[in-house]
Amino acid sequence: MSKDRRIPLVTLLGFQIRFDLTWLILVALVVWSLSAGYFPASYADLPTSTYVWMGIVGAIGLFASIVLHELAHSWVGRRLGMQIHGITLFVFGGAAELAEEPKSARTEFLMAAAGPLASILLAILFQLLAMALDGSEGPTPISGVLHYLAGINLILAAFNLLPAFPLDGGRILRAALWGWRGNVVWATRVAAGIGGAIGLGLMVLGILSVIGGNFVGGMWSVLIGLFIRSAASASQQQLVARHMLQDIPVARIMARSPITVAPDDPVERAVELFLTHNVKFLPVVEDGRPVGHIGLREVKALSPTDRLQRRVREGMTPLSPDSSIAPGADAAAALAQMQRTGLTRLLVVEGGRLAGVICLKDLLDQLSLRSELNLTPEPA
What we know:
The chain is α+β, with helices and mostly antiparallel strands. It is built from 14 helices and 10 strands. Helix 1 (23-42) packs across helix 2, helix 3 (105-135) packs antiparallel against helix 5 (168-181) and helix 5 runs antiparallel to helix 6 (184-211).
């Protein structure tokens, strides 16, 4: 998911909840399917307006349940020493953003199990509330929404417990394999392989459903299967990449003595340096200290006249922890930071001074060389 598409929603328990723009598609689909399909079929002879607000409240309850599911992962992870950057809602649900992979099989297991457990507890809570309302002959629409939320949380728990990495069940499977063999790379390969097979199975079932006339349900099955297969493959590749780059200091890979620009230079000076040195990114340095960076994206946002009149400090992106890293950090941390932020270059800063620049291309070249030299992590 692109960082630019993530929009902050709310902060809970210290975790920032964001949503990707694709999440709006899911919101619309859920409200429509509940108000036009599920609730009219389950509770006949209610006014159309009632079905609409039942659909809206049901959708709010569903997404609140997804957030609580992910909060359970994040809270347990933080208690176990993991760094969690936040939670992002997207078209296939939600995901906690881990700064790193769990350090042990136990941590992996407890984090993975926390989400389905939270969903099961929510299902029990909603069911008890619905039963209490039914017993007191309360309003049917409210009871209907509560019954729906109880059922959907059970479905959410059951789906996530499928042993399809990177779903929670797949992570529980990886934790078990990791604890058994003591090798996380091997465990990830096995769990990702099973996840890919389950994803393929969902795609086949979806195609059969479409042929059988269930177009919407079948297409969702195909899309979810595609998502699981691609996510399993990507998770395995990311883990292998991190293991290949761990213990390699950023200082060994970074470009030293990069071309820089001063904050009081006109933006046109940055354009000249781009063309002269065939670069697309420049650290902005003042009195030897990096204060930000400017690249093609920032310059392209300005008109030719503005590039002559404005100073670099007016167009640059200020230095932040997200855009900088220490030379002693390992290259795996740099790769994880780039994946999290969407940046392709980081300023390497030591003692407040610019030590160099590390690029995603440098990391990918290092991975390619190590792969060709058969320096990939092997199972124990």
